[in-house]
Amino acid sequence: MRAFQKDTLREIKRTLGRFFSIFLICGIGAAFFAGVRAASPDMRLAADSYYDEQNMMDIRLLSTVGFEQEDLDQIAQIDGVETVQPGYTVDVLTTLGDKNVVTKIYSMAPEETIGTDKEINRPLLIEGRMPEADNECLADALLLSSGVKVGDTLTVASGKTDEDIQDTLTTTTFEVVGIANLPIYNGTTRDNATIGNGSVAGFLLVPESAFCAERYTEVTLTVAGAKELMSYEDAYETTVEQVTSQLETLGEQRAQDWETDVIQKAKDELADAEKEYQDGKETAEREFADAQNTIDSNQKTLDESRETLQQSRQTLEENQKTWEQSVSAFVTQLDPSFTELSQVDAWLANLQTQYEQALDEYEQSKPFLTPEQDAQAQVQLAQMEQTIGQVSQGKQELENAATQLEQAEKQIQDGERELASGETQLKQAQATLDREKKQTDDKLGDAWQEILQARQDIADLPDCEWYVLDRNMNTGFVEYGFAADRMQAIANVFPAFFFLVAALVCLTTMTRMVDEQRNNMGIAKALGYTKRTIVSKYLFYALSASLLGSILGVIIGMQIFPKVIFDAYNTIYNIPTLYTPMYVDLASISVAMAVGTTILATLWASLSSLSHKPSELMRPKA
Fold this sequence. Notes:
By secondary structure, the protein is of the alpha+beta class. The protein has helices spanning 2-14, 16-53, 69-76, 234-334, 343-365, 371-460, 475-516, 518-526, 531-569, 584-610, 614-618, and strands spanning 59-67, 81-87, 89-96, 99-107, 124-128, 136-140, 153-157, 173-181, 202-206, 216-223, 466-470. The protein is 64% helix and 12% strand. Helix 2 (16-53) packs antiparallel against helix 10 (584-610).
């Protein structure tokens, strides 16, 4: 037996080329099998490590109406939620050279969480530094192909004509201070957009303070215990699913709260505004009607006063005409040449002088007058005195009438002035009323337009709906998982063909070796060695070559093939580091298959030859 072992060792030394061929073919087969099959779990491990290092979100929440602090508080109370991070996003048109591309702007984590375990979706900085001011940003590494570099200034604008970007952002220009990758974007695929060409070219990451929106647009969160699990395994999905189901229930409740607290409240406020508008309108119409009635009443009074004045004026003119006729008759009776009442004064003065002279003459001549003369003189004097009295009285009456006419004229003129003043005041009051009515109508019109706009705004209010998205809704995550699955499918089939080729090569090699050893096998069999002893020589030969080759092949294959495959895939994806642990079960299977196929080929070849008689073995094969 010992001599047989020495012969086996001499055979290995003598046929070292053949031994190395088996060593090499088994090593290559094992390396290929183990390396290709290890590529898929290595890819998953590398991705999971990257996601854990960057604290990638487990769940992302979107809402048609955004999120407020109360939403965040209720989300944080859900069993299994570890960290909650609200944020803002907006799709914008970004000017790159002579073209506009769609980019998605994300807000960074709150300043107090940056650099801590509570920062979700931590960016992986490739170049530059993190933003510090509101007008600084990190740019997507994918934008490097569009010419973006550190130090560039990017101008953004809203892609919708009815929206102002400054309602969302505090600035429209950002300086690129760094280039980074985000774990939510693993690969070259980005989101869809509702502006531009409908496809996002890359992301920009800005400080949270660069946003001025009232409500958060998204919430990301991590699930307790999920980081310790492999992302692409069922245990991870089960853990996350327990939280997503609770979030979906909360979303339904918050939708009802939105209907009650927001939409119904807005409708109630609108109803109050409409009632206030209607009450104000009716009050204004009533007050304006009262004011107009007062003006119309005053106008009627003025019209009546005007008619009275006109009648008074007509009466005055008639009295004036009568007075003038009386004066004319009075003065012409005294002297046909008289035309004015003032001429009567001279006539009376002359008559008075004549009377006085006649009286003096009478007094002087009285002693010499006969009774008849005396009586006649007294009659003449009495007539003169009576004439003076009658003329003076008539003149006085005419003068009094003139005075009355003047007073009446003055009263009429005062009345006309008061009437003119009243008409002016009434016109001013009407103008003021018209102006105030127009101003009130304008205000009421504006208020009505606001009510109509409020109606439209309420009609446009979206129904509250939450979208609970886990990692399986992330394109990069899913595509990378599919890539690893495809690699696994390839590893399940392709290496088997290579092992079949290796088995055929080993079979051919060992068959040729056994054929060359037919004479020695016949001699050994003739000398009484058993089949087991004779076969053990060739089995040891095959076992040592295949075992050593497959072990070395597994060690090398698990390091080289995953790296080659990972680098090929990483031209699309952006996982930074590959981890290549040794999988004992996979290594054992690879070695066992390599050794097993070689041993089976050797057994088949050896036993086939040993089935013949020694004499037949010692003769050359026909």
